[in-house]
Specification:
Strand order of the largest sheet: 1-2-3-4-7-8-9-10-11-12
Structural class: alpha/beta
Number of strands: 12
Oligomer: single chain
Largest sheet: 10 strands, mixed
CATH superfamily of the largest domain: Aldolase class I
Shape: elongated
Helix content: 25-40%
Bound molecules: S-adenosyl-L-homocysteine, iron/sulfur cluster
Distance between the termini: 25 Å
CATH class of the largest domain: Alpha Beta
Length: 344
């Protein structure tokens, strides 16, 4: 059975045989343009809403919704219809509201410092499961308007390319969030970056670099052994040439591992070569990784070193650490507290 946000307009029409045409517009406009829950579409007859609720079930059921004390961050843990769990985060800033979505339940990439990676891979999400994360957050954000989407939740989006791209097209065309405000974050799947460069819609690319030499990157980000830095940087340069969209390097600062002066020099060289903007994120502690994040004073010095070397870098706020808002952490905490075995 298709889920509510996995169907297209033609399939919606097929579910309404004998109904006047304006019903399709009401349903489409309500679900996709306003992102309203079906039960709120009171311009549709109650009996029709009841029937559609059965025939077009939602894909996401709330397990927990956590709100930060300042109410600027909302994080959901959802259960999918087969029992897998995923996370979504809504973040309000002064000038924008951003939704961070998951692309897979779990992740097969095995980065040791990442809570999602520590739990292993469960399955790909389908496009409807990805789109619904955005729809639910758009409704929750009112009266604020969701302006940006980042694929920085659980999973590796470019390892689930077709579903992620189908979701991007729908978010752009049906939900009306411009492709220029969508960012795909990747650990560095080179064939996926090359496919992105050929797409018509110009999305932004974020590369989770974390190390700027192959020896260290092989260790922190195992997929580097398949797609080493030289290949990755070449793909980034080609993406930049093809799309001219902002490229960013994500760098989780790990104390004593990738926050030394030498790391700053190597990183600045790579970033300048492709005009990438560097986002520094102090590492969030996770249950399965002993090394800590870089202390605040060293974060500032590291950023200054990058700037002095002619690279652009900002320190990203660690949003919602008090509600376990880092990637994969809410699920990890939930599984510990309810006693579900890890890595099912
Ligand atoms: N798989 C993709 C997207 C999801 S991860 C990727 O790796 O890019 C989103 C971001 O969170 C990545 O930049 C990832 O490196 C970072 N991340 C993972 N674990 C983290 C942690 N413990 N502390 C800080 N950032 C982390
Ligand atoms: Fe997967 Fe990204 Fe976590 Fe690495 S950092 S394990 S690629 S989700």
């Amino acid at each position: 059975m298709p889920s509510r946000y996995g169907v297209d307009r033609a399939s919606l029409e097929a579910l309404l045989p004998g109904e006047p045409r304006f019903r399709v517009d009401q349903l489409w406009g309500g679900l996709y343009e306003r992102c309203a829950p079906l039960e709120n579409l009171t311009n549709l007859p109650a009996a029709l809403r009841t029937r559609l609720a059965g025939e077009l079930p939602t894909a996401l059921e709330v397990v927990t919704e956590s709100v930060s004390p300042d109410e600027q961050t909302v994080k959901w843990l959802w259960r999918l219809r087969d029992g897998a769990t995923i996370e979504t985060v809504l973040m309000h800033y002064d000038d924008r509201s951003t939704v961070c979505v998951s692309s897979q339940a779990g992740c097969a990439m095995g980065c040791g410092f990442c809570a999602t990676g520590q739990g292993g891979f469960e399955r790909h999400l389908d496009a409807g499961e990805i789109v619904e994360q955005v729809v639910r957050a758009v409704w929750r954000a009112r009266p604020r308007r969701v302006s940006n989407i980042v694929f920085m939740g659980m999973g590796e989006p470019l390892a689930n390319y077709d579903a992620v791209w189908a979701a991007i097209e729908r978010i752009h065309a049906d939900l009306g969030i411009s492709a220029r405000h969508l960012t795909v974050s990747t650990v560095g799947i080179v064939p996926g970056i090359r496919r992105l460069a050929e797409e018509a819609l110009p999305v932004n690319l974020a590369v989770s670099l974390h190390a700027a030499n192959n020896t260290l990157r092989d260790e922190l980000v195992p997929i580097n052994r398949r797609y080493p830095l030289e290949m990755l940087l070449e793909a980034c340069a080609d993406h930049l040439a093809a799309k001219n969209r902002r490229l960013s390097f994500e760098w989780a600062l790990i104390h004593g591992v990738n926050d030394r002066d030498q790391d700053a020099r190597e990183l600045a060289d790579l970033a300048r070569s492709v005009r990438a903007h560097i986002n520094l994120i102090p590492l969030n502690p996770t249950p399965g990784y002993a090394v800590r994040g870089t202390p605040a004073s060293r974060v500032r010095d590291f950023r200054r070193a990058l700037t002095d070397l002619g690279a652009n870098a900002t320190v990203r706020q660690n949003r919602g650490t008090e509600i376990d808002a880092a990637c994969g952490q809410l699920r990890a905490e939930h599984e510990i507290s309810v006693g579900t075995p890890r890595g099912r």
